[in-house]
Amino acid sequence: MNQKITIQDIADMAGVAKSTVSRYLNNGYVSKEKAALIDRVIKNTGYKSNFFAQRLKTKNSRLIGIVMPRLDSFSAGKLLAGFNLILQQLDYQVLILVSDLQVQKEVANIRQLIQQGVDGIIVQSIAITDEHLNIVKNSPVPIIFTGQSHDDVTYLKINDKQAGHIMGTYIAQLNHQNVVYLGVSPRDVAVGFMRRQGFIDGFTAAAPHGTVHFVETDFSFELAYTKGVEVLSYKPTAVVCATDNIALGLLRYLHEKNIQVPQEISLAGFGGYPYSNISYPSLTTMAFDYKHLGAKTAEKLLMMFKGMAVKSEFDDNMIFITQESTQKI
């Protein structure tokens, strides 16, 4: 039979009511005689119920929920590749919801995934609020976070403070004293606060008389470009950006103003995106292995399925890459 088999078809072939088939699939009461009839038809037709009906019957949907803040970024693609690398080996499928960098939408997405009967959830979170904590406390399925950290959740995330500290020490060692940090809002605790604070700590420890000015942007190339005027108002000799994407937006502005990088201003970012290697000049960056992070996160979630103790941790798997965009003064 080429056409799709429906519950009504199963009911007609078994000679029972559609509601009886539904109860059977949902693990409700059905007499042994009718259950045997339905089971025989299902085996003969190869009928497969959907994920959620299957979960109700087996208590295991083999479906993993993933909440992402956005999909149009290098890091998102690599994280998803890492998740899939582990999950597909065990025949799990994923259901991805996008929060569009909105905290309330992220919370709603987590609730929706729980209601849809997934076996577990991975959240690339932009914040961990009291609402997040309440969901985790009452969730019937394991939840692991990989964007932010909090003492009351299980997480695996980039060690943003360490990454920032390494970058700050490096910029100070190049003898820069007047620096701009072009970063995102501190409401994003990981990238907006911890990464910037790590940079400030590393820079001021190595250059105690130096100054770090903060200019706020978002994650987009476009807004970073428009922040060029404010960045230059501080007359910096170096600018460090919270991500490579931000750095490339500013680089475009500097090129248009005929400001030479690194001869007049050194420039650096975080991420290690491939296009940072082919920009002109190539960008000094702290490269993160997002695929490794995704795979390791999926492994931890699978451990949680088995009731194993899973320790939250910061991932130190990063490589500092010095390229053409920075120089000593």
In short:
With 329 residues, this protein is of the alpha/beta class.
Description:
Helices cover 46% and strands 18% of the residues. It folds into 3 domains: 7-49, no CATH class; 63-158 and 290-315, Rossmann fold (3-Layer(aba) Sandwich), CATH 3.40.50.2300; 160-288, Rossmann fold. The chain contains 14 helices and 12 strands. Strands 2-1-3-4-5-11 form a 6-stranded parallel sheet, sandwiched between helices. Strands 7-6-8-9-10-12 form a 6-stranded mixed sheet, with helices on both faces. α5 (74-87) runs parallel beside α14 (290-305). The longest helix has 18 residues, at 189-206. It is elongated, with a radius of gyration of 25 Å. It starts with 6 loop residues before the first helix and ends in an 8-residue tail after the last strand. The protein has 329 residues and is an alpha/beta fold. It has helices spanning 7-14, 18-25, 32-45, 51-58, 74-87, 103-115, 130-138, 160-173, 189-206, 221-226, 228-233, 244-256, 275-278, 290-305, and strands at residues 63-68, 93-98, 120-123, 143-145, 154-158, 178-183, 211-216, 238-241, 266-271, 284-288, 313-315, 318-321.
Name a few traits of the molecule.
329 residues, alpha/beta, Rossmann fold, 3 domains, 6-stranded parallel beta sheet, 6-stranded mixed beta sheet, elongated
Order of helices and strands: HHHHEHEHEHEEHEHEHHEHEHEHEE
Count of domains: 3
**End-to-end distance, in Å?**
76 Å
CATH top level class name of the largest domain: Alpha Beta
Under the CATH scheme, the architecture of the largest domain is 3-Layer(aba) Sandwich
What strand line-up does the widest sheet have? Answer: 2-1-3-4-5-11
Number of strands: 12
Count the helices. How many? Answer: 14
Described by the principal axes of the CA atoms, the overall outline is elongated
Let me know the average pLDDT. 92
What share of the residues does DSSP label as strand, in percent? 15-25%
Rg over alpha carbons: 25 Å
CATH topology of the largest domain: Rossmann fold
Helix content: 40-55%
**Are there runs of 5+ residues with pLDDT below 50, and where?**
none
What structural class do you assign from the helix and strand content? alpha/beta
Largest sheet: 6 strands, parallel
